[in-house]
Amino acid sequence: MNYDEFKSAGHRLVDFIGDYLQNISDKPLFNPVEPSFLYDLFDEQIPDKPKSLASVQKMLEEKLLPYCTHVNHPGYMGLITPSPNPAGILAEFLVAALNQNLGAYSIGPSATTMELRVIRWLNDLIGYDERAGGNLTSGGMTANFIGLKLARDYTTNDAAQYDGMKQGWVAYVSEERHVSLDKAADAVGIGRNNLRTIPTNDKYQVRIDLLKEAIKKDKSQGLQPVCIIGLAGTTNLGAVDDLQSLHEIAQLENCWFHADAAYGGGVLLSKKYPGLLPGLDLADSVTIDPHKWFYAPLDAGAILVKDHKRLNISFGMQPAYLTDQSQQKNERYQFYVNGFEQSKRFRSLKVWVSFHHYGKTKIGEWVDNNVAHAKHLHQLAMSDQHFESATEPMMSAVCLHYKTPQLSNEENKQLHFAVTERIESEGNFWFATTMMKGKTWFRINPVNIYTEMKHIDELFKTLRDYCKEEEKKY
Ligand SMILES: Cc1ncc(COP(=O)(O)O)c(C=O)c1O
Predict the structure, then answer these.
(1) Which of 176, 179, 315, 467 meets the CB 3.0–4.6 Å disulfide criterion with 402?
(2) Domain boundaries, position 313
């Protein structure tokens, strides 16, 4: 290994990343080339002839960078992937160099301890006591999967771990759930048809009356609740279910209560909007993703568990080849008997570094700024007769609908798609669309350190002008 080359390439790369972050707003956020162009661009054989790191970086600058979706751009307000905080970016560099494998304590003693500390911080934020535990995961999908696996094991008295899931178990969640919960229900053997998706009220919170009715009906047919799932910040709108009532129902039915705060958990850092997730600490398990609204670079999700013992009960298999003799004293924490993954990335470092470098208050200010952006956009839409905003935003997510009473539903949907595509192709903003209660919406969610109010004003003006122009085509 040529360490001189490594060092000079590293310095060059860090300079490049610094300049990239500093000048990102001058570049197009998205480059709308055809996918076939990119397939051709990367149509390469496995290289055999060595190249210098400098020339490899040059290739990256030419082939990769121009076609990235630049989530660091202030106009990125799309699917919930934050602008990563710069300290976290540096931390990820070190993670790769150290390559600690947190599956087993012996391949990362200090890293395991740091991971436990970050999990403790997250547990403190949601209000769990010292009995709590958890795991950092690849994201909310995996965390929700683990949450439902814990639920399945607990409610079946651990029988399902050995015998598989028998017929007759049902889980309940809002219609506004993230699809990860459907996938998790499938993966742990509950089955997607046995995930009851309950309608929401006008604030997009699950309807407790309809949930109770659904449980009653299922029980009358011999089915039993295995898990009640609450949403603490929906993907579309940041809506928060009545977690206290959901907890009561889970208690009554003697089943697990899982809360999905993958996105909404970030609001726990807010100074301006405290107490937005009442009852989160009542859940038996909580999904919360630092790689969403804590602005950590991917990947860092988390599953937090009120009673840490449930992790070992669900994942405690210990093959001989992983036995650590020095464990006799039982001091070494082994993630492999307390989680799903074996090889396990060192995810906590970037979260630990971010909290140490910026402090909780600063990260909370970023959260508050994004909430203010959402509230401002909502106000702009409310004062324009052509727009509808789904609800007053509690978090950073806003859904706007352009009203066209003279057009059919399908035409209105196509109008939303056309405007979104046009804005994407111009490279100044990026956001998504969604469907709720039979309508199409622009789904706009700044989880972004660099977005300012002027970007929100500009975005709304663009939306208004383009919607009008598109409408005239009909
Ligand atoms: C509420 C919610 N849960 C779970 C997920 C899945 O998280 P991930 O993409 O990190 O797997 C998302 C993603 O946006 C989400 O919004």
Answers:
(1) 467
(2) 94-358
